Amino acid sequence: MRRLVLLSIVVMLATYTAGCSFSASSKGSSKSSGSISDIVSSPFTSSSGSSSPENQYREEVKDFTASYIKSGGSAANLEQEVGKIAEKRGISDWEDNEATYVGIGKGLHKAGLNQAELDGYKASLADNEQQAEWIQDGYDESK
Amino acid sequence: MSATLVVCETARAERFVDYLHVEAASGASGGGHAAVRFADTTYHYVYAEPGIIESNAEPNDSFDYAYRGLGNRSIHVSRLVVADGAYDALAEAFERRHITQQEQIELLDAAIGDQALIAYLLEQHCGRVDEPVNVPAVRLRGAGYFSSPSQSTSERPSVPPPAGLATVLRSAPVAELRVAIGRDYGADYLERRKHTLEDEIRGLAFAPASATGIAFATIPPHEVRFSESYEHLALAIAALDVLLNERTPVPGAYRRIDDSAQHLTESELATLHARAANLRSSLLRLAATRRRDWGYPMLVGVARLVALDASLRSGQLVVPDSLDDAATWVPVEKLLADPPVVDALLQERRAALDGARAELFAVPVTNEAAWSRFEVATSAMIDLEAAVRRGHGVVRAYSDTMLPSRGGEPDATSPLPAADCDALERWATLANDATVSIRDRLREIYRYDVVSRNCVTELFRTMETATLPIDRGEQAVADAGFGFVPFVSAARVNRTYPIDERSTLPSYRKYWLSRLRETDGAMRVALRESNTLTATLRHPDDGDDVFLFYTDDTVALRPLYGAINAGVGAGTSVVGLATLPFDRGRLLTTGVRSVVFSLPELVFVNLRKGKNGILPWTWTIGEERSL
Crossing angle, helix B295-314 and helix B172-185, to 10 degrees? Predict the structure, then answer.
């Protein structure tokens, strides 16, 4: 009986002090009736600060690129990851968007790449001269 | 564990990091929650499937909405002073941990996607339906805007299309684009490309993902997974099919606001004309891109061309429906139970739509994001307004992205990877093993533990990974005694680190209680808002406890209220025993939980705050609220 009481106390304490939250996301969920709060997670309220959505996108690409490269991410996959950021910002044609490549250039500078290394990334990432120019512009702007 | 913040006397340029302690709540947050805030981003760690502690990075307003609004929990902020260089190092450490872990979790998602595709192929090729396959159905995002050979155009829309919309939607813009592509790249370019992709998709072979590259704080090598390759190819083939066959737009997949005040002016029509021309030239370039995933932006782009054409012809803005019918939804009846909330939500969505419309005509026509925002705002507004007007139906959740997401199942005539049944059986086993090994590896690295790996310990573990110029080696905050408990860690942070300022961001209920006391009188508000029967600040959540009295804003009466709450919980438990065979113990569980979280109130401790099921966004940030 004493063990049972002790166990109950431990369980109660663990319950009360467990702390932390549970993730709201449900991986792999499909069509379902969710919590009513699900329908309020408006993308319009998620962009704070006074800068324009374009500037926010460029800054997000810059920070992501820097962290991604420093963490061992490959150039081959960088564009695909940047594409996901673009989609969240409502940009499907990110290849034709100056902010994408300027952001990458800034991020590569932030990651500490030198010009020779930058040239390698330009060759790998840019499909045309315009994109390469944008990457260089972003890199140079950050100097 | 030694925390490694740099104190202010070493700093020439000082910056601030906010350490957040979120007050406790009933359920899984009995000890509270903790987070750190850099500028407009809040980083925190939460328990997530598959039993791991997961990094979250959220805009501050989203975090506040979830915790202060829906959770009704106040947040105590300790503003820490750090040197400029230290600030950058810390912010980067949190960002790096976040993106590396997300990349690793994406590997798991991709492995689950492989399983789903193989199960689908088994069903298609071999007529075999697995035992309940716990994987999502194969669905192609963006494939729902045009008719297909095996899918009827009269698919049941979530909102009936406005009368006359079908007559202004036409496939002529699709035909014009097809002709232009033929002119630029050759008459048989699209046909040849389609054949190449069909061969490619038939030749796709599965290779299991490996868990060996998954290590703490390292981006794993990412090879394009089987299901990703299939999706890219299937979407590209779907896009080519739309172009080659000039498929008809599905009226239910487009939205138009029927409001005479919204008729387009001459100058707006000219802007839309320019936007359509710009989009057409972008799609011409996209037709020859090296992007593997070009099918989705092509489908979205063509749907937009059709919508722009319909807008120009009808003089009213038409957009592709941005939300997906397969998204999470809620029955509108749940909302209608709280009329002030519905009114406020409609106002919010109307304001978002007005803002997006103004932005659309103020930015250059090359600004795609503005068009996307307008699409989302229109779709969300019509979705809610139509459901409220009808008094039944569903309201869909926003998509994960800001782009048109209406999906469709793969068409029956679309080619599939040409594996035989033996190969598919083998692949199914390998895919299952790969998912299990990745899941195990993630658990190995990030396993959640209430004491040693929780929302507090991971904040300080991440701080440790920052390379800082000076390390004072302050006393451990999280690793001694009860330092892993959020409110204990917050007290230690306040004692240990240089604090510039301490403040409290009140919960929704506390904020509005203080406002209402000014207007309605303290006594009246205290009586009315003290209980769940008469409170106007209550917007009940299905998953909340059953209780009568709020105890977060009263101390003297807390034990009495707690005793009554415990009684209410006990009564609910008794009823729950009777309904056990019918509700799988749901009411009984609620009752028992309600008793458990009433007990601390007997000794003056409040955990339960009363969750809000839904709140208009603006109500949590201090804007006016009507009751």
Answer: 130
**B395 to chain A: which residues are within 8 Å by CB?**
39
**Structure tokens given for A125:** 């990432």
Annotate B177-189 with DSSP letters as a single string. HHHHHHHHH-TTH
Q: Choose among B400, B358, B354, B353: nearest CA to B381.
A: B353
pLDDT of residue B472: 47
Kind and range of the H or E element at A50?
Answer: none
Give the integer Cα–Cα distance in Å for B272 and B471: 58
Query: What is the CA B491 to chain-centroid distance, rounded?
Result: 32
Alpha-carbon gap, residue B466 to B94, rounded angstroms:
8
Cα A128 from Cα A126, distance rounded (Å): 6
Q: Which chain A residues have a beta carbon less than 8 Å from that of B33?
A: 19-21
Q: Characterize B495-523 residue by residue with b for buried, 16 or more Cβ atoms within 10 angstroms of its Cβ, and e for exposed.
A: ebbebeeeeebbbbbbbbbeebeeeeeee
- Minimum mean pLDDT among B59-63, B149-153, B476-480, B596-600: which range? B149-153
Identify which of B45, B507, B98 has the alpha carbon closest to the alpha carbon of residue A22.
Answer: B45
Instruction: Mark yes or no for CB contact B330/A34 under 8 Å.
Output: yes
* Per-residue pLDDT, B453: 87
Whole-number Å distance between alpha carbons of A18 and B484: 9
Q: How far is CA A19 from CA A32, B450, B460, B464, in A?
A: 29, 8, 15, 21
Q: Which parts of B332-461 are beta strand (E)?
A: 394-396, 407-408
How many Cα neighbours within 13 Å face the side chain of B545? Answer: 28
Do the chains contact at A127 and B28, CB–CB below 8 Å?
A: no
Residue B437 has φ and ψ, to the nearest 5°, of -70, -35
Å between B192 CA and nearest CA of chain A: 23
HEC assignment per residue over B442-486: HHHHHECECCCECHHHHHHHHHHHCCCCCCCCCCCCCCCCCCCCH
Q: Among the listed ranges B104-108, B230-234, B488-492, which one has the minimum average pLDDT value?
A: B488-492
Q: Which amino acid, residue B572?
A: T
pTM for the model stands at: 0.87
- The predicted-structure confidence for B256-266, as pLDDT tens digits, reads as follows 987 777 789 99
The residues near B22 (Cβ < 8 Å, ≥ 6 apart) are A21, B29, B32, B33, B34, B35, B67, B71, B73, B74, B75, B76, B486
B185-211 pLDDT, tens per residue?
Answer: 999 999 999 999 999 999 999 998 888
Instruction: Name the residue with tokens 């020439």.
Output: B12
Rounded distance between C-alpha atoms, residue B511 and residue B74, angstroms: 9
ipTM: 0.84
- Residue B372 to residue A19, Cβ atoms within 8 A: no
Cβ-contact B478, B451 below 8 angstroms: no
Nearest to B49 by CA among A21, A25, A34: A25
- B219 CB neighbours in chain A (<8 A) are 68, 71-74
pLDDT at B129: 61
